[in-house]
Amino acid sequence: DKLAWTRRPATEKIQVEDYQRTHVARTIGGYGICNLQPGSWTKYANIDFGKGMSKARFALDARAPAPNAAPAKKFVRRSGNSVMEAIPFKGDASVETVRQWEISKPYTKDRKSGPDLFGEVFAPETDPKAGEWSLFLQPFTSKGGITPEAGVVDFDVANGEGSRHACAYARTAIHAESGRSNATMTVTCSGGVKVWLNGELIIAQDKPGTWTESAKGVIRQGWNTILMKVNQGTEPGNFSFKFGTVASSCGKIVSLPGLPADAQVSEATAAPLIELRLDSPEGKVIGQLLPGQSECGIDHAAGIHNLYLVFPGGAVNNVDWVRFEP
User: Which residue, of 67, 197, 271, 315, is most buried by count of CB atoms within 10 Å of its CB?
Assistant: First the structure.
């Protein structure tokens, strides 16, 4: 095991300044971390959670909430027993890769090749709620041990591998505080691709490549739905998608996988001080430290993972250490 010497037991105190990577956060003279703005995160590699942890304890200094402050409003998505919070964009007037989607099972048609399916109309194109869908929250590792970079959706691997001469769909929802025109959307795809924004076809290309559309990029105030169709021939079908608001403001923007209806609601909740995530800043949330707390429960973290401390609200002055308990 070449990485055994770098492994750290989760039960030992992890000094937060001993991170491998960071976004925005800084150390305080080599002790703890500070400058914790909304969206800051730190990475701790090769943490051994053993057979499972149930609690995390922190030493930190949090800012007191303003008197009579209203609880933060969040959009959430429920799927079975899981609750996913909307992912905020790093800032308005930015271009970002959308990483979380719902993806459909593959569609095929007798005696039709993958490219031939470009013009075929399947259920999701006429009824956004139709079809069988599953969550895609981070890249799947193939049977050959290959994991694509974050933001790349590989339909073949996500659907169990082996699909050929098929097409599949992906959908996600973006919420904007205010509407605007000329939002830029860019898709890179290994095969033919179609993109619908709020039911309007804005990109249709029957070959691989990178395609950009802004003239039809009209973003509504509130929820906007993006539907993607990707063709797959004898090679796996994959895509990545970027959404941009560089030219003018949309206000606060968040995204959720799936449709902006039914299972997606607005909830008044206290924003967590710290989110504990596995393997990426957008990875599985295993715990949330809420205001007024110094410890939180952990949702079955076992085995060896990279640990990310994510600071969604910017309400923490500094953090000294974190330690886990079985």
Answer: 197
What does 120-131 look like in DSSP terms, one character per residue? ---HHHH-TT-S
Helix (H, G, I), strand (E, B) or coil at 185: strand
Rounded to two decimals, the pTM is: 0.62
Which DSSP category does 6 fall into? Answer: G
The closest alpha carbon to 222, from 254, 186, 270, 183, belongs to 254
Phi, psi of 144 (to 5 degrees): -85, 0
pLDDT digits (tens, 9 = 90+) for 62-115: 765 555 555 455 676 666 545 567 777 776 567 888 888 899 999 999 988 888
Position 20, amino acid: Q
- CA distance to 193, 226, 257, per residue, from 83 (Å): 30, 21, 12
Quote the distance between the C-alpha of residue 309 and its chain's center: 15
Q: Residue 125: what residue type?
A: E
Q: Are 261 and 286 in contact (CB under 8 A)?
A: no
Contact 190, 126 (CB under 8 A): no
Task: For residue 101, give the nearest of 150, 172, 190, 182 by alpha carbon.
Answer: 172
10: region left, alpha or beta (phi > 0 left; psi from -120 to 50 alpha): alpha
Could you read off the pLDDT of 153-191 as tens digits, one per residue?
888 777 777 777 889 999 999 888 888 777 889 999 988
